[in-house]
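User: Please predict structures.

Assistant: First:
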Amino acid sequence: MARELIAAAARGDTATLEPRLVDGADPNCKDEHGATALHRAVEGGHAQAAACLLAYGADPEIADQDGLYPLSLSYTTVETLHAVRQQYRRFRKSTATRPTSPQVEAMATELARNGIVKVSGWVEPQELATMKQEFEQFARNLEDKLGRGEARYRHYDEEEHYWPNDRAYVCNNAFKYSRQLIRWCCRPSLIELSNHYLGRRAMISRGVAMRYLPSAPTDHDMFGWHHDIEDQRLKIMILLTDVGEQDQAMTYVLGSHRLLHPYEMFFRNTCSLEYCRAHLPSLEIFRTTGTAGDVFLFDSNGAHRGNRREAGEVRDVFMVEYASDRCDLWGGDISTAAFDGLRLDAGNPFEPMMSVPKKWNGAHTRSYPAWIEQLPLVESWLAPLTNGRGSA
């Protein structure tokens, strides 16, 4: 079986590879040169086969007879590492369990198909009223700072700021203001959905509060078509104000979340409609219009953009990012009192975030995401919650 497994890995035959692994084949078996199946998959540039092996326990720290490790820059290229990482992020075992809740399964199915799903009225009226009050506390605090000559935009990683060119209020520490948002993010259905979609235990990496004042149309930065350079993330956008067809709705290219972008697109993350049109069977645009309390869940690897309208209404939203590794956790002020009375049997999604330094207290030097630098450190993206070895 070892020879058959290694041969399947060498030709990138995942359809043969996975059933053998399910039947108990050793993912770390070696050939006569001391190379593992993972070595042979990587050598052939078969990223999906490599991802399959990793998901079933292949150890990237087993060297061949020359002392080379399969996922090291002495054996392969950073572009191949990037391809393997993208496939590993998206690989789902054929034996994976389905969601227990029909609602979660329906949302997960639509999310997997389109990259985005709308859940109308998912925030209950009382929850929404509290979130609005807490959001206004952030807005007032920022306006007070502006009145003192503070909080003008200098860098994206700042805790909170006002972008004068974009007429936008931004807070990267939204949980500091909103206990209700913390509690809402701990609802079992959302935890189940995020765990299922990311294929591993999901963790919250950042919470953002954003207010867009009416502004002239533009296509720079987040207001042009782009993907998020954090790679695969599940983002939750909660509307705190109504957003109509003539307002400042985000737009999303359906199905573009499935695209595996080349390594270079994670340094300059433009994801144009021409690029999408060339790689998708059709081009369908989805607009995130709705009423306050509606929620949009989307894979931010897909092409999306914010849209500005001078005649549009003010748009207030909370945004929450879910990840499956620790490469880019922002930290934040999380009130543990918000967890009182909650059942967190499936794990607290805030726990990893609470143990890291706050990004805005460090040097503002970021030009690309942390995982790009950590790409050769395979353990940083294999293990979802610890620094040790983990599996999907």
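Second:
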Amino acid sequence: MINTDCFKNKKVLVVGFARSGLACANLLYELGVDVSITDNKDCDSTRANLLKLKSSKINPVRNTTHTNSNVIVSNGIRVELGKHSQGFIKDKDLLVISPGVTNSALPIVWAEQLNIPVISEIELAWMLCPAAIIAVTGSSGKTTVTTLIGEIIEASGKRAFVCGNIGNPFSDEVHKMASQDFVSLETSSFQLERIRNFKPKISVILNFSRNHLDRHRDIQEYLDAKKRIFMNQDDSDFLVLNGRDPILKNLAGETKAKVLFFFESQDLNPNQAAVVTVGSILGIEKNTCLKVFREFKGLEHRFEYVTEINNIKFINDSKSTLVESTIWAIKNISSPVILIAGGKDKGVDYKGILDIAAKRVKEVILIGEAKEKIKKEFNGFLSLDEAYTLEEAVNKAYLKAKPGDSVLLSPMCSSFDMFSNYEERGDRFKKAVLNLAKAKG
């Protein structure tokens, strides 16, 4: 790692104690930083993460309760669970926030009042990273493209670390990196909101559509967050943009970086075209990329075949949190579809699915907080039903399907109303399907 002394004698508060918060805390602890953690949830997952702290591995018996009953001390790391208190923040030099922490969260409000700097987890890891960073953002396709970029780099004989919003935090991997390595980094608008000097060698913006309006005030604020990916780049860096996206095409004049456009073709879908363009910058031959594409098995929770029960296929597309992603999934199923959709609304327009759904979808089973909104937009256009749980939705879908049909979980919504993340949602779907298969077996 580089710049390890920049946190010397600093008191740092990590806000959010899920995957990236845990990784940040462990990284800072290894650097000898005075680190604390705060999370307004006190639940099984945050309690489980206490045992994953590096400090707890030294002497877990020393986990004791602080004078504040919500604060636990683990060999010097103070962890506040179930609330945020202003006194826990006031003496800090820096806040590092997880992607799920909004600008209206109390620790952020208090930090700004106290003039305490606030950065995102990817900014922290970037400060320490010796490797070249390829940062990927966009409304959809980020996980696939980030994964494929890592694979073409590995196929060319170099070492790549695939991390970021993809599930493996950047700060969990940075200590393993060397100057000759590469980082393929998935970045969300949430992570980009709180960067300061973050400067990738290559930035990629795949597409742009209405999304995350449950968090951003409007679509312009969402676009502005995406644009931050290239704000520190200069003429030694590269910006890769979707040449068929009119909004992104216009960003070429707003950057100092060298701009390359990628285009979908008969041979390459948009994700593959973006990867080939990145490969060309890195000197990786197109044939190497094509070989990787042919051998790519796909990603868990992204159009993932689960099983077949009495000639009815079940497909897990839990990663789909956009209308555009669900449209793509439906288009790639040749049989009639029973669609399971819904979750936490992100402010998207669900009517965009109606044209393709009218031709391919027999029925929609709605779950989650967004079901009333979706029902209102779909009513009169599609046959609708509702379920209170994902397990109920799976059983209803099976009863409605006929041999030759496909049951598709493609929610068009985030998972945070019913699940901790899209992985848990996808795992629950697969478990329900496999339990059904056993019962029908």
